Amino acid sequence: MEIGPHQTTVRLLNGAAMPVEVRGQSKNLRPGQQLKVPTRRPDLAPTIDLGRCAAISADSSDPSSPAVAAVDGDAQTFWQAKAPDPALTVNLERPRRLRTLTADWGDERPKQFTVELSRDGHHWTPAATVEGGQTKDTVDLEERTAALVRLKIGGEDDDGPQLHSLTLR
């Protein structure tokens, strides 16, 4: 996938055909094919969400549901892990004061998750452990300061969790 300021190109390099849905239109992408669509720019809209369009990584992702979908500002997209006990990390680039974290889960929800905070990426402090199962979980971060926020997710069923949005305020 190549995401540019005006156009996004999705290419399927190999493997089986993959369904791609854009604005309600579905297309099967076959190996060697590409699909070009206008790039959505939620980063241009004012927001109080400190995590919106932030750099994000996951140690496990379904190729059709990447980690960036959790912070893209679109409730229709979602990140889904492929392996058990995944971790998702948001990089805010500099220390920010955080009041709350809200996780808006999809059909597959974790049984529990831990929120960890770091200023430098080397030293992590647990901020909260949440017993999941809810559609939406809001965690009070008590005005803590962090440059990185990590969710360590555990206890999900066979399918990995689906996270529609992760909001940091």
Automatic annotation (TrEMBL):
SUPFAM superfamilies: Galactose-binding domain-like. It comes from Streptomyces rapamycinicus (strain ATCC 29253 / DSM 41530 / NRRL 5491 / AYB-994) (Streptomyces hygroscopicus (strain ATCC 29253)). Residues 39-125 form the F5/8 type C domain. It comes from the Bacteria. This is F5/8 type C domain-containing protein.
